[in-house]
Amino acid sequence: MVDVAPLLAKLNTGLFIDGEWREAEGGKTVDVVNPATEEVIATVADGSAQDAQDAIEAAGRAQESWGRTAPRERAEILRRAYELIMERQDDIAAIMTAEMGKSLTEAKGEVDYGAEFFRWFSEEAARIGGDFSISPDGKSRVTVSHEPIGPAILITPWNFPLAMGTRKIGPAVAAGCTMVFKPAKLTPLTSLALVEVLIEAGLPAGVLNVVTSESASRVVSPWIESGIARKITFTGSTEVGVKLLEQAAQQVLKPSMELGGNAPLIVAEDADLDKAVAGALAAKMRNIGEACTSANRIFVHSSLVDEFARRMAEKMGAMKIGNGLEEGTEVGPLVDPKQLAKVTELVDDAVSKGATVLTGGKQVEGTGYFYEPTVLTNISDDAEITTTEIFGPVAAIYSFDTDEEAIARANDTDLGLAGYIFTENVGRANWLSERLQVGMIGLNTGIVSNPGAPFGGVKLSGLGREGGRVGIEEFLETKFVLTPRD
């Protein structure tokens, strides 16, 4: 068992505003709970509306000077931050596991993945380009440049507390934007550890301002209404994203929203079953199933479905459940009692409507918010699990007979973040990929996220993209200058 207490004892848990750590107004704090033990492991500052106002004003003051820094200077800060994160990979992973629940192996994987956003955007900072052309009538020169959009509001979820921060902070720093950052209330400690890394890497005062709080609206609403922010980026539920878009519209903030998912995974009749089972396991069980890219609905051709389900049940039923800080743990707890209750209700509803449980199907007795890895088949179309994002270790398997049926059922949702296809036929892969209404597809792989690729969805799964070459564009404004030709 890894002892995380010494790491937490050294961690700053206040607000970080204008380059200084400070208490929240009135000294208020909020507890952070380990979901494996249900014990309070730390308290962090519970920021107020006034604290939020102080933060956005600090970002506003710092914007002009930060926006004019050399791209190479910004790049070097990100590169140093990347190296520091990797040096502290074990410590950051332990903090993450303690507050969120995922296994140390997965937490270390997230640290590696999250750090890569800093390395990627360090390389993009010096590549912000522009354009030059002669106007069609030949009378003018057109010069196009890209400038930092200005102070940005960053709001991250609890499920990937490091990577969701670096995926937003990285391009903002590279573009020359100052920031106000609201980490998730359930997992603020990893974000605070990230702040310490950026301070050590040389990020100037006022560029990044962090306000932890029990209430997101108490902090975010003043930021949106301030008139100082020009950009908002949010990862979380569609319901909250829609509300933020409504608020942001009042100030015409540039939004990027990575919202809910209901990812289909299609196993075609010619799929390699070994690849498909391994890929589905990765797509389903990454982060205990608490991922927006998680395979929510697994559609398997009728000729393969029984064998596929048997193999999935065998593998998921053998996974070791336990405290993520213990060696060998593969499946940690869900993040809180609310999430545990949701998963329980979805499975119970499906079973009451005729679903078959091949493995799992219930909470784990004792301390902690644990749910058994579960495989369901024969699921009724009117079961709530068919249309609801599960966010837990439950594989819901459905059968189909034709590719057209698979696509129709996969697209029968108002969400469209990620999808997965398993087939050994190039023509079928192209046909399915072109028709699947999602922003990202894993073809014969269960992991779709990559810092070098644009992450985002269609329909109610959001707008804008994070990562890849387009990720920095979300933090840039376009300007052109027209000059007469002599």
TrEMBL record:
Coiled coil feature spans: none
UniProt key word Transferase: no
UniProt keywords, alphabetically: Oxidoreductase
Gene Ontology biological process terms from the UniProt entry: gamma-aminobutyric acid catabolic process
All copies of domain Aldehyde dehydrogenase, residue ranges: 21-481
A Pfam family assignment: Aldedh
Molecular function via GO: succinate-semialdehyde dehydrogenase (NAD+) activity
Family: Belongs to the aldehyde dehydrogenase family.
Name of the protein: NAD-dependent succinate-semialdehyde dehydrogenase
Native species: Sediminivirga luteola
